[in-house]
Amino acid sequence: MEAKSSPRSLFHLSGISLLITLGIVLGAGAITSDIVAERLFWQQNSLTLPLVLCAIATAALGYWVIPMLVSLKTGQIVREDGPQAHLKKAGTPTMGGVFFVPVAISLSLLLSSWSKDVVAVSALTIGYALIGWLDDWQILRYKSNKGISPKMKLALQIGFGVLFCLWLAWSQASSITSVALPFNFVLPLGLLFWLLAVFVLVAESNATNLTDGVDGLASGTAAIALLGLGVLVAPSSLMIFCACMSGSCLGFLVHNRNPARVFMGDTGSLALGGALASVALLTNTLWALFVLSGIFLVETLSVMAQVTYYKATKGEDGVGKRLFKMAPLHHHLELSGWSETQVVATFYGISGILVLLCLVTVANS
């Protein structure tokens, strides 16, 4: 008598199938947006061309850069207290952000004809990438999961954030301090806006960094969020920047999908968060960023809840209870029996729904 297949075996997920599906969805989304907006999708002022060019360039460059990273011995140091399935990833090269971020920035500057807005967000993105690179380099140098100190990292993030805000204050009208909300509501913040702006830059970069823990998770969810933000800010030059960043994430996913041949490291994840936050601040779409970054937000909240609960339940022996099996949330799901690709597929789907929610809200506002 033939054994019945388990539900999980009936729906087999693989890294390559997720990559292909995401590529088709993002490509179709970009083309549809260009058609609706009556843009020629083979021209530089579209969403489609920057997306495709950056995806191809990053994917091709990876075949040259990844062997270099291997020869430079940039192998990932894996946490021993993490999911046991991750131990086999030890030695996989990291710092992948060193090739996909520059591709996106270079092409966005060229395609936008060096727009001052694109120059500004590119500078902030590079700044955060440098912070991540310094952290990655320290980890590799000392063969430990401890990079630069949290205080140093935070100080650098705030420093670059303040510089970006100073440029924002100098270049934009005073109305920038009034935050646009859905359905034509406006929240005037005055000087409080600048505290919010720096907080958003730091929080978004760290949230994206926390999400980078499963093959293809951060790169795919960031690609979805960036393209969604690009649709929302169209037809500005920052639309091109978002499309380029999204395309580079997609091209990086060719090598970062499960099983990953390279990790983005803090070099890439901090840069992606900075890119999202800086575009949202410059285009007054903070509410949209909040929705589009729903996955990053939940991942961050899971860490905060874990730490808070552990401290609150700490006994005389100095040991507390855990709210999750492990934080961030994606590790809890893994330890609960989910495969990496199931986690990634679910988070991709949620990210896509959040983008659609934003677009529908804008259309009805």
Report the helical percentage: 55-70%
Mean pLDDT: 90
Arrangement of strands in the largest sheet: 1-2
- How many helices in DSSP terms? 14
Class computed from helices, strands and strand pairing:
mainly alpha
Shape: globular
User: Unreliable stretches, pLDDT < 50, 5 or more residues?
Assistant: 1-11
Order of helices and strands: HHHHHHEEHHHHHHHH
What does this structure look like?
Helix 2 packs antiparallel against helix 9 and helix 7 packs antiparallel against helix 10. Helix content is 68%, strand content 2%. It has a two-stranded antiparallel ribbon. It has helices spanning 7-10, 15-36, 48-71, 97-111, 116-142, 150-171, 192-211, 217-233, 237-256, 265-283, 286-292, 294-312, 329-335, 340-363; strands at 178-180, 186-188. The chain is an all-alpha fold and 365 residues long. It starts with 6 loop residues before the first helix and ends with a helix. It has 14 helices and two strands; from the N terminus they run ααααααββαααααααα. The chain has one domain.
Keywords:
365 residues; 68% helix; 2% strand; mainly alpha; single chain; disordered N terminus; globular
Secondary-structure blueprint of this entry?
Elements: H1 7-10, H2 15-36, H3 48-71, H4 97-111, H5 116-142, H6 150-171, E1 178-180, E2 186-188, H7 192-211, H8 217-233, H9 237-256, H10 265-283, H11 286-292, H12 294-312, H13 329-335, H14 340-363
Antiparallel strand pairs: 1-2
Helix pairs in contact: 2-8, 2-9, 3-4, 3-9, 4-5, 4-9, 4-10, 5-6, 5-10, 6-7, 7-10, 7-12, 8-9, 8-10, 8-14
